[in-house]
């Protein structure tokens, strides 16, 4: 076995077939560049699905991880640890929150948020106030609870019966929410920008209206900022741009810059409902993950970095507009900051992955957001010259796919 080549074919031999990874296997990353087993170089505009906020092997993150690994790896939740406490303090200082719960992923952070919302209403109102409203096309994770809250039926198929007490209405449709919400609603859950649902931002009026309806019915407002958080939109968290504060916020992906970590943030009065033994995570608050996240947050929270995100986003948009002027391939380019989605015209609907594959063949890594949207979620500090180089390669890929 030790002599067997590590190839893409080995994936099919030993891995559960729930993924369909590309043919190339990356072995090294530096900044926004990646190299595969054959030494081929790629420009990374995928960011590990909006995770690699500072690119690959950022020296400050490598230093934080190395230093922590030489001291303390793990203690579980039986004891606290210094990186966990420092990170929690920074998150509360930088946001609306008073309290933090650490997990390993966005799904786990959302699981904690949904459980907290139900328990808070159970304690403070009644057991009947347990209904959760989410939005069609939303995505909140792959656990059974989170996949049921998510508004995409394809992810629930075959895993029924679904968790009870969850309903869905259309995103950006305030009238639909108003018709559904009631005094039995314990929480409304939303992404400020739907990620997997196609990079669809909430309108200002909608997000303000959702907050008002939650207040009216004494329901908690949960923002899933797993994808939009930690500088992705040019604000540390997207709620700060909207000027609308949630009761609970979840964050992951960019929070660890590639090291698995998630967190749920909330007010102190709500947090009281998670008393000792009501929820937990063996790895949550892991010293290494928290040390990396702390170093990343110190960088990303700087105003010049956040301002740079917005400037770099305009550079991406400029390239996409030029491509569209030539090919008329996108109905629109939407999103915020460095979370951008280019929706394909009707003729190319369902073929977003063709653009991903064509781009990879030209040496640039991009994403899809559903079958109709090409997604870009690069490092927040990607060099301008590399943006130009990578988007020139993407333009060449489009030329080859749709005809120069």
From TrEMBL:
<keyword id="KW-0028">Amino-acid biosynthesis</keyword>
<dbReference type="InterPro" id="IPR015422">
    <property type="entry name" value="PyrdxlP-dep_Trfase_small"/>
</dbReference>
<dbReference type="GO" id="GO:0008483">
    <property type="term" value="F:transaminase activity"/>
</dbReference>
<dbReference type="InterPro" id="IPR015424">
    <property type="entry name" value="PyrdxlP-dep_Trfase"/>
</dbReference>
<dbReference type="InterPro" id="IPR015421">
    <property type="entry name" value="PyrdxlP-dep_Trfase_major"/>
</dbReference>
<feature type="binding site">
    <location>
        <position position="142"/>
    </location>
    <ligand>
        <name>N(2)-acetyl-L-ornithine</name>
    </ligand>
</feature>
<feature type="binding site">
    <location>
        <position position="139"/>
    </location>
    <ligand>
        <name>pyridoxal 5'-phosphate</name>
    </ligand>
</feature>
<keyword id="KW-0663">Pyridoxal phosphate</keyword>
<feature type="binding site">
    <location>
        <position position="281"/>
    </location>
    <ligand>
        <name>N(2)-acetyl-L-ornithine</name>
    </ligand>
</feature>
<feature type="binding site">
    <location>
        <begin position="224"/>
        <end position="227"/>
    </location>
    <ligand>
        <name>pyridoxal 5'-phosphate</name>
    </ligand>
</feature>
<comment type="subunit">
    <text>Homodimer.</text>
</comment>
<feature type="modified residue" description="N6-(pyridoxal phosphate)lysine">
    <location>
        <position position="253"/>
    </location>
</feature>
<keyword id="KW-0055">Arginine biosynthesis</keyword>
<keyword id="KW-0808">Transferase</keyword>
<dbReference type="InterPro" id="IPR017652">
    <property type="entry name" value="Ac/SucOrn_transaminase_bac"/>
</dbReference>
<dbReference type="Pfam" id="PF00202">
    <property type="entry name" value="Aminotran_3"/>
</dbReference>
<feature type="binding site">
    <location>
        <position position="282"/>
    </location>
    <ligand>
        <name>pyridoxal 5'-phosphate</name>
    </ligand>
</feature>
<protein>
    <recommendedName>
        <fullName>Acetylornithine aminotransferase</fullName>
        <ecNumber>2.6.1.11</ecNumber>
    </recommendedName>
</protein>
<keyword id="KW-0963">Cytoplasm</keyword>
<dbReference type="InterPro" id="IPR004636">
    <property type="entry name" value="AcOrn/SuccOrn_fam"/>
</dbReference>
<dbReference type="InterPro" id="IPR005814">
    <property type="entry name" value="Aminotrans_3"/>
</dbReference>
<comment type="pathway">
    <text>Amino-acid biosynthesis; L-arginine biosynthesis; N(2)-acetyl-L-ornithine from L-glutamate: step 4/4.</text>
</comment>
<comment type="similarity">
    <text>Belongs to the class-III pyridoxal-phosphate-dependent aminotransferase family. ArgD subfamily.</text>
</comment>
<feature type="binding site">
    <location>
        <begin position="106"/>
        <end position="107"/>
    </location>
    <ligand>
        <name>pyridoxal 5'-phosphate</name>
    </ligand>
</feature>
<dbReference type="InterPro" id="IPR049704">
    <property type="entry name" value="Aminotrans_3_PPA_site"/>
</dbReference>
<dbReference type="InterPro" id="IPR050103">
    <property type="entry name" value="Class-III_PLP-dep_AT"/>
</dbReference>
<keyword id="KW-0032">Aminotransferase</keyword>
């Amino acid at each position: 076995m030790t002599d067997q080549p590590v190839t893409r074919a080995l994936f099919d031999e030993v891995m559960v077939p729930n993924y369909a990874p590309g043919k190339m296997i990356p072995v090294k990353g530096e900044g926004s560049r990646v190299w595969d087993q054959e030494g081929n170089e790629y420009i990374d505009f995928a960011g590990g699905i909006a995770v690699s906020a500072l690119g690959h092997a950022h020296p400050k993150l490598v230093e934080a991880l190395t230093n922590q690994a030489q001291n303390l790896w793990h203690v579980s939740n039986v004891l606290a640890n210094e990186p966990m406490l420092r990170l929690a303090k920074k998150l509360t200082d930088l946001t609306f929150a008073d309290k933090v719960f650490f997990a390993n992923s966005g799904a786990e952070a959302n699981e904690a948020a949904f459980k907290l919302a139900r328990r808070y209403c159970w304690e403070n109102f009644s057991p009947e106030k347990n209904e959760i409203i989410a939005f069609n096309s939303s995505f909140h994770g792959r656990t059974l609870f989170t996949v049921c809250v998510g508004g995409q039926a394809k992810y629930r198929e075959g895993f029924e019966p679904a968790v009870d007490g969850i309903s869905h209405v259309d995103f950006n449709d305030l009238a639909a929410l108003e018709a559904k919400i009631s005094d039995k609603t314990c929480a409304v859950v939303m992404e400020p920008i739907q990620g997997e649902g196609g990079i669809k931002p909430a309108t200002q009026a909608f997000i303000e209206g959702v907050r008002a309806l939650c207040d009216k019915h004494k329901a908690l407002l949960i923002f899933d900022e797993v994808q939009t958080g930690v500088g992705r939109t040019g604000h540390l968290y997207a709620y700060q741009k909207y000027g609308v504060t949630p009761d609970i916020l979840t964050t992951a992906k960019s929070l660890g810059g590639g090291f698995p970590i998630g967190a749920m943030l909330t007010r102190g009065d709500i947090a009281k409902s998670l008393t000792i033994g009501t929820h937990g995570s063996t790895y949550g608050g892991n010293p290494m993950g928290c040390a990396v996240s702390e170093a990343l947050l110190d960088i990303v929270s700087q105003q010049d970095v956040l301002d740079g995100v917005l400037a770099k986003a305009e550079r991406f948009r400029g390239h996409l507009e030029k491509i569209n002027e030539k090919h008329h391939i996108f109905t629109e380019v939407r999103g915020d900051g460095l979370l951008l989605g280019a929706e394909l015209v009707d003729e190319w609907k369902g073929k977003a992955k063709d653009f991903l594959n064509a781009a990879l063949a030209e040496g640039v890594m991009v994403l899809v957001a559903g079958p109709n949207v090409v997604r870009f979620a690069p490092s927040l500090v990607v060099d301008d010259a590399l943006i130009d180089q990578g988007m020139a390669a993407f333009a060449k890929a489009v030329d080859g796919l749709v005809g120069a």
